[in-house]
Amino acid sequence: MIKLFDSYKKKLVEITPTDNYFKMYSCGPTVYQYQHIGNLRAAWLPDTVAKVAKLNGINVSWVLNITDVGHLVGDGDEGEDKIEKGAKTEGKKVEEIINFYTEDYLKQASSINLDIPKDKNLPKATDYIIGQMKLALELVSQGRAYILNDGIYFEASANLDLEVPFDLNKSGDSTFTGREIHNSDRQPGDFALWKFVPENTLQKWRFNHFDETANDVLRVLQKLNDPDLFNLPNRWGVPGWHSECVVMNKEIHGDGINSLDKHTSVIDVHFGGEDHIDIHHRNEILQSEALGFHLSKYWVHNKFVLVDGTKMSKSLGNVYTIVGEKKNTGFESIQEKGFDPLSYRMMLMEHHYTVQLDFTWDKLEQSQARLYNMRKEIAKILSLAKTESIEIDKKFVKPNQPVLIDILNNNLDCPKFLEMFNDLVKTTIENGVITKDKLMDILFWENNFLKMDLIPQIPSEIYKLGDQRDRAKKAKDFETSDSIRDLINQKGYQIDDYSWGFGFWKK
């Protein structure tokens, strides 16, 4: 049984998959700029949970969305669309901005060995415009939303009957969120389902673009019978940010936005950063409950990544990515600083997802040292295993020490897991003899969970250099021996000597 911390219930909950199938969803990037190390923590968490679920023999369907429209500057309902602003700032087409920053995000994730979803499980908001239109119109039809000159809004005061996993004040105070709205007909708890935009907006849609929504909007207009709204089908608009996840979940993991089931939840766990708890995810819950279904059984959030105790900010020059050259962009990658990208994966593992991670370069150095020490120790084990001709069981699919799975099942305690795994590595060789069961466990955990390049594929040319260096050492030609060691280092590998021979690890 996997236990995780639910941010709304404020306690550990047991995640029970339906028919051994685990449905997950996480809020992905808004692709208008580079995604920083904090954004990558938000992807690391569901990826790691998915790996743990699979270790428990559970099938997993994980959806991670790409927001390519509707997310306004400031995360509220006012201001410019972030994608549109990015396109204008860089003088590029919207599609170029979306494709460039999506590809970079995938490179960042790949650099720390995240298995990001693919194909239909990596949807874009613009792929689900019809569903978001239908959601807005359905809530208007039910009297749970209203239409103003600038958009369609969820009405807080019309939804006080909802059962939600947070404090919903039913005394008439409709402030569901902490936002302040001034000079508006809207209440602070109201939020946009659809925003009307000028004709020169780079991304825009109309209700009469699609047969389904054209019929829906006519039905709503007939019901409202308001002459001021008769031009609604012809008005350009974009979806509100809070609707895409509801629609995607219902259409990918469920059975469509119009097929409602009040008795079951669409997914098992919804993930996101802690900044989503009070507005974005509350609004998702309000919409789904207003439509008559539960979006997710549980809501799990990772805490922020800070830098030197402060929030990341381009103005402070402390916004970091993992890989790539980011000069003159306001960003900098840890790779540019000379660090192994997987040192950040180690740092993520060293900090529990329920606490804020305070990133510093000193801490990253410590994480990299731990990573390299682990590689160094395992290289020694593998070298001795090769010398002793120990056969590796490639069909090995279950570890000998289930206690490590138990640690992960208990609220994803990765820091404790690393301690126990380190003990496993240290005790694999005892009195000069390898314990094969422990060696197999090391291989299992690296291949199925850690993914730290602990067991790299060593090229044949590196082995040949190692043999040449060994012969030079035996001939006491230390100058040649040292030059070969330097050459091996230049190629990204460290060679270590043992009483029985030598071994390599990736550096």
What is the compact description of this entry?
The chain has 507 residues and is α/β, with parallel strands linked by helices. Helices cover 38% and strands 16% of the residues.
Q: How would you explain this protein's 3D organization?
A:
The chain has 507 residues and is an alpha/beta fold. The protein has helices spanning 37-55, 82-90, 94-111, 129-141, 211-224, 244-253, 280-291, 342-350, 361-387, 403-409, 414-426, 436-450, 460-474, 478-490, and strands at 2-6, 11-15, 21-26, 59-64, 145-148, 151-154, 191-196, 237-239, 265-273, 294-302, 305-307, 320-321, 332-333, 357-359, 429-430, 433-434, 493-498, 501-506. It has a 4-stranded parallel β-sheet with strand order 4-3-9-10. Strands 5-6-7-8 form a 4-stranded antiparallel β-sheet, with helices on one face. Helix 4 (129-141) crosses helix 6 (244-253), helix 8 packs across helix 9 (361-387) and helix 13 runs antiparallel to helix 14. The two termini are 37 Å apart.
